[in-house]
Amino acid sequence: MSIKNNIEKFTQTLPETCRLIAVSKTQPVDKIREAYDAGQRLFGENKVQELMAKYEALPHDIEWHMIGHLQSNKVKYIAPFIHLIHSVDSAKLLAEIDKQGKKFNRTINCLLQIHIAAEETKFGFSEPEVMQMMESAQFKTFQNVRILGLMGMATLTNDTTQIRNEFRHLKALFDTLKTIRLENVTMAELSMGMSSDYALAVEEGSTYIRVGTAIFGERHQH
Ligand SMILES: *Cc1c(COP(=O)(O)O)cnc(C)c1O
Q1: Disulfide check for 96: which of 61, 72, 90, 151 has CB 3.0–4.6 Å away?
Q2: Which residue's alpha carbon is nearest to atom 13 within ligand 1?
Q3: Which ligand 1 atom is at minimum distance from the Cα of 86?
């Protein structure tokens, strides 16, 4: 299957409530261009330098999504153009995004990454941590960030019941947080589902699936 065919398959089968982010990390610019020519406009990257290089090289009507762990000292590079940061995993990072948003006179859209997987290594807030941050006095002072929702990654397993339960758990937290009214929060987006588990994620209420290998094939090594 070509990249074009893969994109078309997704756009024909996804419900209107869910959008496809083509995860182009490690893929060369010409592959991204192929997806772009097939109509794809939302792309996801997980490394700041790679993201900046691709932003420079490709048309500016692309919506760039930062989906990987982000270091505070690198926020300044993507702050001028990033569409949505999916991987906000600390109050410190959010404070820096707010600061850079102010500097560039933008409100930067963010998702809070929640740890839902059984694996220890994945980044993200626990439920009590996210509650605590949103209730903090510091959080209310952020004027140049907008929290649009949550992001999560399920455990890498073949156990679909476990994966479904993890997605359900994230959706339940999303629904709970929706009831908290704050100036800088609009709980509208739920980023969950990758190549191996997007179908389950869509069934459980995902609004953004992040798909790499199912579009581009195996990743190119750096
Ligand atoms: C790489 C990556 C994806 C895409 O993974 P695939 O299995 O290639 O679809 C999705 N989300 C995040 C956070 C990633 O790092």
Answers
A1: 72
A2: 67
A3: 13
Q: What ligand 1 atom has the least distance to the C-alpha of 46?
A: 15
Q: Whose CA is nearest to atom 8 of ligand 1?
A: 212
For the stretch 18-59, pLDDT in tens is 999 999 999 999 999 999 999 999 999 999 999 999 999 999
How far is Cα 50 from Cα 36, in angstroms, rounded to an integer?
Answer: 17
Boundaries of every domain in the chain: 3-216
Whether the full predicted model's pTM is greater than 0.90, yes or no, is yes
Counting atoms of ligand 1 from 1, which one is nearest the CA of 87? Answer: 13
Q: Cα(36) to centroid of ligand 1, in Å? A: 19
CATH superfamily of 3-216: Alanine racemase (3.20.20.10)
